[in-house]
Amino acid sequence: MNDILAVGSVALDTIENSTGRIDDTPGGSLSYFTCAAALFKKVIPLCAVGTDFPPFSEAWGTDRKFDKSNLSVEEGRTFRWGGKYSKDLDFRQTLFTELGVFENFEPVLKGRAKNAGFVFLGNISPHLQLSVIEQSRKDSFKALDTMNYWIDGFYEPLIEAISKVDLLFINDQELLHITGRKTETSSILDILELGPRYLVLKKGKNGAFAFSKDRYSFAGIYKDTALIDTTGAGDSFAGGVMGYLASTADPAKTRIGWKEVRNSLVYGAAAASYAVEGFGLSSLLGASKKDIEKRASEIPL
């Protein structure tokens, strides 16, 4: 079963930049990932939200394929985040973070989630990531994302989680930080020695690289993007990559080869290009699978 089990945060975001401001818009890593990946394959999102979160079909789109059986609506407020961006959108300042019901979130897999062939571990506590790994199908294709906060404060459990996945999503600054190395090449080799078969290095407006121990490939970005809001671009990229991988895999097995990983980069880039063209999820929600495929075909690989 090539469904994608995905765990991460679901939030109500307040986003401010030079083009405007939006308050309490659906966001969080899981929202962006789901809206991108569910265009390709059924996603089983795993998270908790408060009673103030809008209906999921309204927040994530009626044309997306997702299973709500592992989403929990709990009494209280949804996780909230506020951020203000620089004029060029390269830097952002966190204005506030309110965990709400997400503070006590403990992932428990139910039903078909236990048998999902693909697992995405979004940017959350490594302890939660490890819990999902232990509960999920042993031969599933697993991918993980992280950030400096977890590298600094939860290094050992994070390294353990990385050692148990097939693919790591990471940006160049995080890569050097987690290894303590001065060069990307040595850092990449260190990570691949830990256990992952693949590493996807995100470089924002400069594209992305995929690496294995003996190969690498580069994909550019979609050049004609109208840049409005970069929130969720990395999670949308991961959603495009994982959605493509799950849609191309043999249903009887989840073994993913280099060719599939290499080709997936342009689908991630296409999904991210839609994510940044509007505030929050607005532009990504307006994209269809055909839209993603069209842009993917125009991105250099």
In short:
This protein is of the alpha/beta class. The protein has eleven helices and 13 strands.
What does this molecule look like?
The strands form two sheets. Strands 5-4-1-8-9-10-11-12-13 form a nine-stranded mixed sheet, with helices on both faces. Strands 3-2-6-7 form a four-stranded mixed sheet. The longest helix has 18 residues, at 258-275. With 301 residues, it is an alpha/beta fold. It is globular and about 45 Å long. The protein is built from eleven helices and 13 strands. The mean pLDDT is 95. 35% of the residues lie in helices and 24% in strands.
- Backbone shape: globular
- Derived from helix and strand composition plus strand pairing, the structural class reads alpha/beta
Number of helices: 11
Unreliable runs, pLDDT <50, ≥5 residues?
none
Distance between the termini: 29 Å
Give the strand order, joined by hyphens, for the main sheet. Answer: 5-4-1-8-9-10-11-12-13
Strand content range: 15-25%
Q: What is the alpha-carbon Rg in Å?
A: 18 Å
Portion of residues in helices?
25-40%
The biggest beta sheet is recorded as: 9 strands, mixed
The overall average pLDDT, rounded, is: 95
Query: Count of DSSP E strands?
Result: 13
Element-level helix/strand string: EEEHEHEEEEHEHHEHHEEEHHHH
Oligomer: single chain
